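Hi support team,

I've been running sequence recovery on a batch of backbones for a student project. Most finish fine, but this one hangs at about 90% for roughly twenty minutes before it completes. I'm not sure whether the input is malformed or the queue is just slow. I've pasted the structure tokens below so you can try to reproduce it. Let me know if you need the job ID as well.

Thanks,
M.K.
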């Protein structure tokens, strides 16, 4: 944990992770600060890059996005040029909601959210189009127990 933030900053970050729509007044009250003091701390947290905008969490199931797939990729290519091309390519696929370069048996892990198996097949076809990969292994989530949990502060 970063030693550059104190318990009040951690309280602010915890509160915002739970509900980023809190009014400044409610946020200040929840962390025991005046509105002005809270505003100053928020400004510093933004300037330091600890806060990266505000987003709304959307219920994917209510939108018909019922299929979650973890895609494990292995490649023989590790040049900076290939990696840059691959990253650009993957980031054009909106169904890829998480994208990590990892250690171990695989090189990359993607989290894909789509409506159904046909939707995933379209993502898969787009993923492999023009990209040389050694292997693609897909794991289908049967149940999402916890998604988008707050960071432990």
């Amino acid at each position: 944990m970063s030693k550059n933030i104190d318990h009040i900053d951690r309280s602010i970050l915890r509160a915002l992770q739970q509900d980023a729509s809190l009014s400044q007044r409610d946020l200040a009250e929840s962390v025991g600060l005046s509105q002005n003091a809270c505003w100053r701390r928020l400004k510093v947290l933004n300037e330091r890059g600890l806060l990266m905008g505000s987003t709304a969490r959307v219920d994917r199931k209510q939108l018909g996005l019922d299929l979650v797939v973890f895609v494990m990729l292995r490649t023989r290519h590790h040049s900076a040029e290939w990696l840059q091309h691959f990253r650009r390519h993957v980031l054009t696929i909106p169904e890829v909601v998480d994208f990590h370069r990892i250690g171990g048996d695989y090189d990359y892990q993607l989290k894909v959210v789509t409506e159904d198996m046909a939707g995933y097949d379209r993502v898969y076809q787009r993923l492999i189009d023009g990209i040389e990969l050694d292997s693609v292994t897909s794991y289908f989530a049967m149940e999402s127990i916890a998604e988008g949990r707050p960071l432990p502060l």
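--
Follow-up from support: It reproduced on our side and the slowdown came from queue contention, not your input. The chain has two domains: 7-48, 60-141. No action needed from you.
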